[in-house]
TrEMBL record:
Keywords: Antiviral defense, Cell membrane, Membrane, Nucleotide-binding, Transmembrane, Transmembrane helix
Keyword Cell membrane found: yes
Name used for this protein in its record: Pycsar effector protein domain-containing protein
Subcellular location(s) per record: Cell membrane
Species for this entry: Erythrobacter longus
Entry annotated with the keyword Transmembrane: yes
Sequence ranges assigned to domain Pycsar effector protein in this UniProt record: 13-163
InterPro entries according to UniProt: PycTM_dom
Amino acid sequence: MSEHSKEQTFALLKDSLDEAQISVRAYDTKAQFVGVGYIFALNVIGDIGRMANDPGSGDIVTIVIAWLLVILPIALFGYVLYPMRKSAKEQTSDGRSHIFYLHPDRHGSSEALIAAAESCDPVDEIAHELLQISILRESKRKRFVTALASAGVTFSVLFASQLLASAGTL
């Protein structure tokens, strides 16, 4: 591989890594905003539900269902925030220097880090990191979609129960 071609490959991989990292942070931001919006929306829906429901309907089953409908989607949005780069599977005996996702125990001094950076293959290092961050991005995307679906189910159930309550059938 020519040096020019290797530089182009490195630049492409670096740009891809930057985009993947931005995407991972975007899922965190989306989950935070949607989670807060969901909480505000539940307050409004709760007020409407209190107006439509009979005050004597607070049995155990109703309380458990309400908690599942309210708390579960909030927890799922929080779950989007959990997978971090450090939770991705890391192979420490694979011969890489692991310069991009650096654990202080692996290179405990500046000298050790510089030596590792000088001796590593930058294209291999960035390709490895791109794969790791892409796995993380996909995990966050799946969790975000699951949280959105859960919130959608909750809104649908609350809407149906309020319609039935206002019609006098619940």
